[in-house]
Amino acid sequence: MDLVKNEAKIGEFRKRAEELVSKMTLEEKVSQTLNHAPAIERLGIKAYDWWNEALHGVARAGTATVFPQAIGLAAAFDEDLMEELGDAVSTEGRAKFNIQQKFSDTDIYKGLTFWAPNVNIFRDPRWGRGQETYGEDPYLTSRLGVRYIKGLQGHDEDHMKAAACAKHFAVHSGPEPERHHFNAVASIKDMRETYLPAFKACVQEANVETVMGAYNRTNGEPCCGSKTLLKDILRDEWGFKGHVVSDCWAIKDFHTGHMVTSDEVESVSLAMNNGCDLNCGDLFVYLKDAVEQGKVKEERLDEALVNLFTTRMKLGMMDGEKTAFDSIGMDQVDSKEHRMLNLNTSAKTLVLLKNDGILPLDKSKIKTVGVIGPNADSRRALVGNYEGTASRYVTVLEGLEDYLGDDVVIRYSEGCDLFRDRVSGLSKGDDRISEVKSVCEDSDVIFVVLGLDAGIEGEEGDAGNEFASGDKKDLFLPGLQNEILETAAASGKPVVLLLLVGSAISVDEKNANAIVQCWYPGAMGGRAIAETVFGDRNFEGKLPVTFYRSAAELPDFTDYSMKGRTYRYMETEALYPFGYGLSYTSYDYSDVKADRTVLGDDGINVEFTVSNTGNRAGRETVQVYVKVCGVEGAPRYQLKAFKKVALEAGASEKITINLPRESFGLFNDNGEFVIGSGKAVVYVGGQQPDARSEELLGKGVASVEIELP
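-> structure tokens emitted (709 positions)
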């Protein structure tokens, strides 16, 4: 039995928390609502800082395994992998916590309350923090978020291994520079269909312990003080039992940015009264004034504290309680096993976008390899944001050097800066172009390694983020990067383009023989890339976001309507579609049928056979989409199931996938979930059922019709 389902145990913790809170003075109560909660020695309460990060590994507290960034993890389309990663991260989190407690270190980033995952929807490719998400699809995001949370929180009957947090609730996806005053306006339909499902799944299926509010307003209400979000939906409708934390310093925005309150006391009152229990920041010190002025009832403050101390008790932090995790040692941090998991994970995230047959490369036929580009030897381009510190990093250049050894000569040039027009400040500009041409001239094959890093795309206010406040200005490579690619292409030598980036980039296909979307592939990324492009591994990643041809196709960045956005609603042809990705082998789907033609109370079972028709082993990503026909304003179709299938060359496997009745429902304009009458089409294959995917892959998908009675 999971702790989160052990109601008796949780009831015991809440009772203990109530008794503890009843002994506190008002000042002591207020002090515990800040993320840096001080010790209360007379009650045996240790100091605790609630702020910790684990987006793709334990972050910001020294050595830890740095897994691929979240958007890359989404490209693996692998639920089981997500739970395995969550478990590895919480193991390292416990190991670090144990040693930190031993030495009385209670600083920031030293706790067991991890503010991850980010289950916002990556609705616009310009958003810098989209790299932290699981992509543009609510179903994929829900499934991956649920399993990562289960891995983090664990399955012990007595204590949580760590506390996860679903963020940022809700309707949050840029623009970054405007987040402190921006009002995201979304229809009830879009809220229910797109922006809320992942949060609902995290609460009701994964029993996530924490929910973090967003900076922005949603439909006029600041999210960290929204009655609609925090009370009506989260607590009353979904039955959330954990605690709510504000985003950092977001409550100050109520009166300085959103202008919905007049001062600090009004802001903290709005947040606390509507269900925000914990303040990342310092503003909740004004709760003492708010209680004394009658603007917040002390009973509501007590409720918030009971929520918080119940979490600490679930983690085994109070009264010297022992847990099953107390013996986890630092030998588990960035261990050999976790580095191998990291390497295997990194390889699973790589998406092959184009291959004219050049890949996989045969090193026995190559004498000299050129490696060019600002991300070729960049550690920063491996990790993305919210990262830890790995014990070893393998950049793309280092990965190729290690793989090829002394058998192949490697020529390297940085090529250009990521976004400036020169590498050396005193130069005339474009100061590596002659070196680039020289490398191209000498090489048999050229790797051009371009993209971005967290200094260009990321969170507003991040140190060093000087390019565009975290968001992208457009979808093209900045600076001189495209010139470097064109120079390599003009050399006449084979070009393999490696994109290390956390989002969709638009590049001209004609300038490369092969294109690999590498995301921010983690500390072992260079090794994973080398092993894959030389054929020791197969590609299996699929795009969790749509690659558009340009931002001109998109609605305004500040428009939160889903019309014209993502594969479900887009009206133009994608450059590379959601769900797309090539392999070194090929897969065939046959005998696709449903066990019934009329939808029943328990849904339908779709049966089919997947065959590996190539000459290499691989892992196929089965994708099942549902289109409800004849409903105005409905999505084109929606992902409703996916499954990883490992097949040796020539092997086949019969698969059965259940689509529950809910897979055939839609939200109407009033936000009501309706399963209407009519017809639906179920599509089964390794791709979306769109014309562009069919063009790129040279094949379509199978379909079956279902009657909706």
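The chain has a mean pLDDT of 96.
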